[in-house]
Amino acid sequence: MPADPAALRLALAEEVAAANPTLDSGWRDAVAVVPRELFLGAAAFRPTGAGWEPVRRAEVGEDEWLRMVYSDRTWVTQVEGEDAAEATGAVSGSPTSSATLPSLVVRTAQVAELRPGQRVLEVGTGTGYSTAILCHRLGAGNVVSIEYDADLAARAAVHLSEAGCAPTLAVGDGLQGCRKHADYDAIIATCSVRSIPHSWFWQLNDGGSITTTVSGWMLAAGMIRLVLDDEGTAHGRFTGDTITYMLARPHERPPSPSFFRLDGDSRSTRLDPGLLEEWAGRFVAQLAAPSAELMTTGSGIILRDVATGSQAWTEPDGDGWTVHQHGPLHLWDQVEQALLLWRDAGAPDLTKFGMTATPFEQTVWIGSPEGPGWQLPV
Ligand SMILES: C[S@@+](CC[C@H](N)C(=O)[O-])C[C@H]1O[C@@H](n2cnc3c(N)ncnc32)[C@H](O)[C@@H]1O
Which stretch is the leader sequence (predicted)? Predict the structure, then answer.
């Protein structure tokens, strides 16, 4: 029997709702009606392990394509600026756009506590799928969406119009917000940020909210909803979600030179470097060394500071691990001290972390604003 898009859409909506029992039925209904196949266009990338290969609708056939489209998974649509529809073969590099998995689209809206009638700025239109979901629930007249990449934005505009949605669309850097259409009751980002951009504070109504994933160059991330008080300070607590979005383009790591281990001060570590492979441990490490990137080697970890070139690398030494630190920053000392504070606080998951933020100072803390805390790079 040929695949029926309406039936597949409904099944996807039921699957998403079953996995998230507290989801408002309005979001389930939006998944049940928004035609995701329209937004995915003619091709997407599939991971190969070493890179990405294009999968074309015309080649896989309509049934297989619809089953792909209506699975609850992210489909990468652009890698290093190259669109799947234009790729002539496999490509390598990092995704620069995707159709986010539907469960995360509605989870973000759920965390944002969006209600019909609220005026929302979405940062990262991408394919336009999440924009269509927002339009369905909030009314297109209340949705503004901004995309960095002009070609993607143009394609999303066509697909949204075909789907019968007419939100306000803009092209540009959403880290500057979208001033022309401010003020907003809520800003939600479908890309992650290293810290909350200044403009988002200025473009929100009092009591407005910001929902985003806070991430960084170790690719650790936490989802949070921050609410702005009438003095201009935003407060919030992280959720426990262990999923994230790609970094906003202006917050991406600069390209890295080749890495060579350099000798330096050596000592035994007090903690297992494997803690950095855990979600919360890595998040704490990133807070402690926000301009460092992390590589794992199988037998240890490497930290390299993008700004200063400082490095720290660990190796097993029989009983434990030895760390070698080179350069002006002692990266492992920073990370280890933070991990010890986290451990003393009971090694909590991200639901025990919160954030207090102004445009000028942003602190992520454990427990309460008086607890151990780290400043984000603003
Ligand atoms: C995960 S994709 C978005 C998924 C999209 N919401 C969907 O459902 O198809 C992230 C998008 O954010 C865009 N982006 C990255 N940085 C941005 C920025 N500073 N301003 C606006 N868009 C940005 C990327 O180009 C990409 O299309």
Answer: none
